[in-house]
Amino acid sequence: AYVIAQPCADVKDKSCVDECPVDCIYEGGRALYIHPEECVDCGACEPVCPVEAIYFEDDVPAGWGDHRGSNAAFFDTIGSPGGAAALGAQPHDSALVASLPQAVA
Ligand code: F3S
Ligand code: F3S
């Protein structure tokens, strides 16, 4: 599966959402998350992210490796909804994203 890493936090551009053919990119409070089982590895989302937050799971930069588990953990409480649009934005974040310092304007 593809993974959304740290640069998405507090940016949430959402260009990726429009590209996904299976609607598996879900919105949380501070970032978006790719469902590790619903993603079909099409790769369409990766080039459109303006902050280069999206990587194939084997290509996540070392410093952001924990985001593989972070994307999966986002779904611990909601399972496999089968579509992000119908579910809508969720208020929660993974523990990792929730722990990131807030950007100072
Ligand atoms: Fe985030 Fe980039 Fe998508 S900032 S919402 S991963 S386009
Ligand atoms: Fe969708 Fe990106 Fe996976 S477009 S299917 S989340 S590789």
TrEMBL record:
Keywords: 3Fe-4S, 4Fe-4S, Electron transport, Iron, Iron-sulfur, Metal-binding, Repeat, Transport. Binds 1 [3Fe-4S] cluster. Residues 30-59 form the 4Fe-4S ferredoxin-type domain. SUPFAM superfamilies: 4Fe-4S ferredoxins (SSF54862). Coiled coil: none annotated. InterPro entries: 4Fe4S_Fe-S-bd, 4Fe4S_Fe_S_CS, 7Fe_ferredoxin, FdxA_Actino, RnfB_subfamily. Its cofactor is [3Fe-4S] cluster; [4Fe-4S] cluster. Ferredoxins are iron-sulfur proteins that transfer electrons in a wide variety of metabolic reactions. This is Ferredoxin. It comes from Streptomyces huasconensis.
